Amino acid sequence: MHDTATPPGPALATHEASARSPRVAVIILGYNSRRWLERCTQSILDATWPHVTAYYVDNGSQDGSFEFVRERFPGIRHIQTGANLGFAGGNNVGILAALREGHDYVMLLNADAWMEPDCLTEMVGVMESEPTLGFFSALILGYDDRRLDKNWMQFMRMNYRCLQDLWSGSLDRWYPTDSGSGAAILIRSSMLRHIGLIDPVFFMYFEEIDLIRRGRYHGYGSGFSTRAVVHHYNHLESAGPGHSSGIRFERGHMIYTLKDQGKPAVQNVLAFALESTGRVAGAVLRRQWSRAGKLVRVVLELWAKSPAILWRRYLEMRTPSRLQELRQLEHMGQEDR
Q: To which CATH superfamily is domain 16-240 assigned?
């Protein structure tokens, strides 16, 4: 399987939003996040952007989160997944609902985050003026202060022009980036209908980076704002029982290596083999027996899933319309008609 074909470019902004104010769906994915949900949800309702709908997707919480949001905010959309589908699968449930209802943009907002009132107005303004942008990340600050989020700072370090402008005190409105933050990211709906949704195999970690990389393969850009502010706590509970966050992070990176759209599939398999073996060997050499055992189980799981992962990668690159979620979306559209 060889993957060197030139990807198609994105369609320009010819959707109906050009003749009206775009509709934005903001998706909050909650997993035992009750303590954060009031401020997060209220910040969406306080947004200055006039056409915004909040979706709360409960990902199998056991702390009464769903009941709290349903009672406190009865006017928003409420969805229960019935199980913990992870960051990828849970957000996909909300994204599918938003696309079915015809929203022009979908924003993912972590439950332990809240947006300033003009955040959406600024983000939509940039996206509408830059039709080849598929993704746009907010400026992320501390939850209760204005210190830069440590993860968001990576965007700045990777963008030399941004660093130069920061030094000179003349920051632009936004800058391009090869990455993005799933904690607060605005995504163009027409692009999702073209390239597909988040790959649920990730569960959590690297799923938004994989989606951004896939978008870039198909010609859609990504950027980050210096004006649209979201405040993020960045210390949520683990996404569920089982593996620790550290093991899930390593699992996500191994999948990310296996799916790299910029290299031939054979090269990815070799890189995955080296990485997975190296991670297990490193844990053994450090006598981290519990971690080594968990990594062995993860590696065996991913080897078993590798044919399906590579097949999805092929579809994502060659014929995205054959992806299961896009077929599901098309079927829902036919039912509506």
A: Spore Coat Polysaccharide Biosynthesis Protein SpsA; Chain A (3.90.550.10)
CA atoms within 13 A on the CB side of 129: 9
* DSSP secondary structure letters along 154-223: HHHHH-HHHHHHHHHT---SEEE-S---TTEEEEEHHHHHHH-S--GGG-SSSHHHHHHHHHHHTT-EEE
Gap between the Cα atoms of 2 and 315, Å rounded:
13
Give the pTM: 0.90
List of residues 6+ apart from 65 with CB closer than 8 A:
30, 31, 32, 33, 34, 37, 58
Query: Which stretches of the chain drop beneath a pLDDT of 70?
Result: 1-19, 155, 235-243, 333-337
Indicate left, alpha or beta for 219 from its phi (over 0: left) and psi (-120 to 50: alpha).
left
Mind listing the pLDDT tens digit for each residue in 120-178? 999 999 999 999 999 999 999 999 998 888 777 776 777 778 888 878 888 899 999 88
What SS3 class is residue 22? Answer: coil
Q: Is 51 exposed, middle or buried (0-12, 13-18, 19+ CB in 10 A)?
A: middle
Give how far Cα 7 sits from Cα of 4, 156, 218, 312, Å. Answer: 9, 28, 5, 16
**Is 261:313 a contact under the CB 8 Å cutoff?**
yes
The amino acid sitting at 319 is: T
Domain ranges of the chain: 16-240, 245-316
Using the structure block, give the residue that is written with the tokens 């907002």: 109
Burial class (CB in 10 A: 0-12, 13-18, 19+), 217: middle
